[in-house]
Amino acid sequence: MRIKVSLDTPVEELVEQFPEAVGFLSRRGVRCIRCGEPLWCTVGELLREEGIENPQLLIDELDEHLIKKKEQEGARG
Amino acid sequence: MKKILEKLNIKDVNIGACSGEKAWFEDPKGQELISYNPATGEPIAKVIQATDKTYEQVIEQAVQGFKTWRMTPAPKRGLVVRDLGEALRELKEPLGELVTLEMGKIRAEGIGEVQEMIDICDFAVGLSRQLYGLSMHSERPAHRMFEQWHPLGAIGVISAFNFPVAVWSWNAAIAVVCGDSVVWKPSSDTPLTAVAVQHICNRVMADHGLQGIFNIAIGRGAVVGERMINDKQLLLISFTGSTQMGRRVSEAVAKRFGRTILELGGNNAVIVSEDADLEMAVRTILFGAVGTAGQRCTTTRRIIMQKSIASELTERIIQGYKQVNIGNPLEEGILMGPLVTKAAVEDMMAALEKAKEQGGEVVCGGNRLEKLGEQFVEPTIVKMPAQTEIVHNETFAPILYLMEYEDIEEAIKLHNEVPQGLSSAIFTTNLLTAEKFLSHEGSDCGIANVNIGTSGAEIGGAFGGEKETGGGRESGSDAWKAYMRRQTNTVNWSKELPLAQGIKFGD
Question: Which residue of A has its CA nearest to B344?
Answer without folding.
Answer: A36
